[in-house]
Amino acid sequence: MRIGHNISIRGWLPWGLLLGLVVALGALFPQGMLARGIYVVTRNLVSWYTVYGYPGYLTMTGKNVVVRYRPGDQADAGLVLAGAEEYYGRVMADFGVSPTGRVPVVVYPTATSLNNSFGWAGDLNAMGAYWAGVIRVVAPSTWIDVGSPQVERDIFFDEGPMAHELTHFAVDELTGGNCPRWLQEGLAQWEEMQLTGFQLPPPDSGTWYSMDDLSNHFDSLTDQSAAYYQSLAAVTYMYKHFGPDQVTNLLHRLRAGESMEQAMSGTLGEKPADFAVQYQKFAAANLD
């Protein structure tokens, strides 16, 4: 499962000091730009530390991506770099963003070490995660064991997390962090499906969460499979019923600081409650 939580990171930086600095810097921004300014500063600081910090990590640099990895994981780092470069151009073009620097990617030797970097529970099984301008992935050799470099490359390109996590980066870049989790996850799954054909199977539970639950409690919902499925269903409805241009317009409205309700009403002509009814009907009739 791909996971792209926008959450606090623990374990490798004195974040209390960092956040205090960020809040102080945010006070310099005009009132309407305060939240966006604080987030942009946070993101830039996290990205800078990822590229220049991480004591003991080595660096592998590509055209658009810079990978940090532990000694001994060079082959994994090379595969991650190749996968990121493979999808970078298409993802950024699809969302109309042109990042000014290379995207930082950190390769963790195990899922446990990735979990620990976020303070997640030890039994959470994530291939990748995104937060504040940085992509984090588990070394491909941890979950791919085929004995053939070419087959390993094919599996990683088709089933790995790079297209998904790069989409999180692109959407975050476009909206300045003003994007609800369900929309982030839906867009990441949609783009991944277009590029690789990968799609999570529908859940067995039949659970349907309200828009309020998806918007405000996404990461704490009991049935994460249902939450991810609903986010993809909602975005698929957007693309199929309203078209890509309207999805883009919605994201630009979020970038301008509108709420999700304002952006949705202004581009789709539906308030969240009406949208929820319509996309669930669409999913029942069109999705397996």
Radius of gyration: 19 Å
Structural class: alpha/beta
Oligomer: single chain
Strand order of the largest sheet: 1-2-3-5-4
- How helix-rich are the residues, as a percent range? 55-70%
CATH topology of the largest domain: Zincin-like
Based on the structure given, which CATH architecture of the largest domain is correct?
Answer: 2-Layer Sandwich
- Our count of domains comes out at 2
Q: What do the pLDDT scores average to?
A: 84
Distance between the termini: 19 Å
Uncertain parts: 1-32
Number of strands: 5
Largest sheet: 5 strands, mixed
Brief overview:
This protein has helices at residues 15-26, 34-52, 74-95, 111-118, 140-143, 149-159, 162-175, 181-196, 211-216, 224-242, 244-255, 260-268, 272-286, and strands at residues 58-61, 65-69, 103-108, 128-131, 134-138. The chain is α/β, with parallel strands linked by helices and 288 residues long.
Description:
The chain is α/β, with parallel strands linked by helices. It folds into two domains: 15-172, Zincin-like; 178-286, no CATH class. Helices cover 58% and strands 8% of the residues. The protein has helices at residues 15-26, 34-52, 74-95, 111-118, 140-143, 149-159, 162-175, 181-196, 211-216, 224-242, 244-255, 260-268, 272-286, and strands at residues 58-61, 65-69, 103-108, 128-131, 134-138. A five-stranded mixed β-sheet has the order 1-2-3-5-4. A hairpin with a 3-residue loop joins strand 1 (58-61) and strand 2. The chain is globular, with a radius of gyration of 19 Å.
